[in-house]
Amino acid sequence: MKIGVISADSASESRVAITPDAVKKLRKLGFEVVIQSNAGQAAYYADELYQAAGADIASSSAEVITQSQIITTVNDLSAEAIDGLSSGQIVIGMLDPYRNTQLDSYAAKGATAFAMELLPRTLSRAQNMDVLSSQANLAGYKAVLLAANEYSRPFPMFMTSAGTVKPAKVVILGVGVAGLQAIATAKRLGAVVEASDLRPTAREQVESLGGKWLDVPMSAEEAETAKSTGGYAWTPSEQYVKDQAAVVDKALSNADIVITTAQIPGRNAPRLVHGATLAKMKAGSVLIDMAAGTGGNVEGSVPNETITTDNGVRIVGAANIPSQLAAQSSDLYANNLVNFITTLIAPAGDDASATNLALNLDMEDEIQGALAVTHEGQVRLAKR
Q1: How many CB atoms lie within 10 A of CB 362?
Q2: pLDDT of 348 higher than 90
Q3: Neighbours of 339 (CB within 10 A)
Q4: Which one from 50, 76, 98, 130 is the annotated catalytic residue?
Q5: I want to staple 32 with a disulfide (CB 3.0 to 4.6 A). Which of 2, 260, 310, 372 is the partner?
Q6: Which candidate in 12, 99, 152, 232 is catalytic?
Q7: pTM score of the predicted model
Q8: Catalytic residue at 127?
Q9: pLDDT class of 239 with cuts at 50, 70, 90
Q10: Does 50 participate in catalysis according to the annotation?
Q11: How far is Cα 44 from Cα 158, in angstroms, rounded to an integer?
């Protein structure tokens, strides 16, 4: 049974789905691996490293697809690659399922497509397969470094003979995995950090990392509701949303660096920073919009471009930050995929080997069923 690895179909994507170390793990499970030539080159994984790990090298994506029962990818396959699929093949990757316009094509080919973004993150046995967390962690770290590079002053406080240099004021909007890592990184660089999230329950995490929580007053009833739901199922009142916007607006007006991280699967990213707020910000301040690729948290942000407003604010549309750390992000992503692939293997006893390895596709399984967007000629994804 062979697993295929194809090259990313995008000039802005440097990651690779399977690394040489992951090849070794897959071979121990009983799989063979074939990888498209130079698929790992942008992540500093040369073909020779794959060959040393036991993988075969194919000259094209078409050759990989022809040989493989399971095809791994970073992002969605090209239309040409999908056209080359055969019934019963499996595709695993970050397929952006709610925006993907090719799911009918996967289904028509009889392929089973697994979108890794749909992993139930509350399942303890799924934690080592969580691609969103592994990639967001690195993205939060790198976002701070991108901001430091754009900002014309240092992050930490300096005491010099010419005077005191004040520390940078950093505001993080959105305190998920990426936001928490951004807080930790900015603090390590010496910045003063404030953070906000729609979930009041995130306060404890922010403060544990040394950040200041941008507090929004709420009624006792609303506070109890937010606490009892853990914050995730809480629907804030219109007044709370309005009050939070006012608190954030004031913080951003005094900020040197703003990093926005809020994204909603299947929908455009929520707009957190509007033009009226941008107009109040200081010349030379920097915004890193980590959601630029899904509509943007910041008004006026453009994916993969840096825009300077009339009042001198720099907006960085950071659409694919993990690709800028391709070697490490590929390594973590590959581990996520290997861990998921192990769930597809039927129990084979103590003598599992390439000769008795078999797949066990089970749509009733809480992980497989959640990730499968196409199977047996049908699109399984519920519309949002």
Answers
A1: 14
A2: no
A3: 16
A4: 130
A5: 2
A6: 232
A7: 0.91
A8: yes
A9: confident
A10: no
A11: 37
